[in-house]
Structure prediction request, 272 residues.
Amino acid sequence: MQIDLDFADRHVVVFGGTTGINFGIAQAFARQGARVTVVSRKRENVEEACAALGQFGGQVNGVCADVRDFDAVGRAMAASVAAFGDIDVLVSGAAGNFLCEAKDMSSNGFRAVVDIDLVGTFHVLRQAFAHMSKPGGVVLNITAPQSSIPMRFQAHACAAKAGVDQLTRVLALEWGPAGLRVNAISPGPIAQTEGFKRLIANGAGNSGDSNANVPLGRLGSVDDIANLALFLASPYASYISGAVVSCDGGGALDSVKPTLEAAGARATQTNA
Ligand code: HXC
Ligand code: NAP
Prediction:
């Protein structure tokens, strides 16, 4: 189920918007009448996404760019603005991930994820600023619970997403006076996505029964995240900026549990 908010003729640009959660966000805005630009590396992903988004009858544009390349991001931004005008909503969601223990991770492997998730987000926001509708423009960064909850085999993603959260807050401070709101969405485990498959299929210190860790008892859906994006970009959220908003069924709260269990075990050992 999707909420109904009007984005007719708004220009929404989604980096990493050709698959998964970010594509779901692009689709939600297209459904609400927005002109949508999606950007990612692979031409086949861009073409498929544009064809699917075109079904909603609105205007759609697709551009290939790697967020690690500052100039390529600038060219993508310029092309999107030339087609559809200044940017009303910017989503920065490109990300990469794999499971690897830090002691086995190469410097290049660590750097690849930090470059995509964190440096890439800086590139996207830095290149967008001049083209954002001011006042009224909205930035949504896509972060993850690992930004504050440490997770084994995720040193790169944890470090990168922690940086994304803090970048969100700093730019909310700096860009607020220009009338821009900057927020981040932190999805929990989202069913049928690449990110979820990569963590669960390989274990991630997680049994695979990940809804057992979610108080609401289910995995999230792409629509859950898309609905939050619509809300945060809408006038209903006009006083929300600098926030990292979880959409995880309460899952992040459960990270406290193992800590308490460990503390209980330590107390038992001490008392024995
Ligand atoms: C160890 C690995 C590795 C692996 C890559 N590397 N995969 N190391 N284990 N499984 C190392 C490589 O050996 C190399 O280091 C370095 O990482 C760069 O790898 P490349 O393949 O050359 O990089 P590139 O082609 O740029 O691809 C980037 C990528 C790739 C991140 C490695 O997986 C990718 O493009 N991913 C995009 C799709 C994706 O990951 N989606 C999920 C994102 S969201 P050396 O030293 O050998 O040169 C997400 C969040 C979930 O996961 C959060 C849930 C709570
Ligand atoms: P996904 O389908 O793999 O989406 C990643 C997107 O980013 C793809 O469109 C990919 O397209 C693009 N991309 C990757 N590297 C890029 C680069 N260097 N430059 C430009 N584009 C690039 O993954 P997802 O699971 O839906 O995740 C989407 C977002 O949600 C990510 O920010 C992720 O960290 C976050 N998240 C996901 C979950 C989850 O459960 N899935 C949980 C928490 C947070 P190309 O390959 O064509 O470039």
Observations:
- Helices lie at 20-31, 43-54, 70-84, 107-128, 155-175, 194-200, 222-233, 256-271.
- Residues 11-271 form a domain with the Rossmann fold fold (CATH 3.40.50.720).
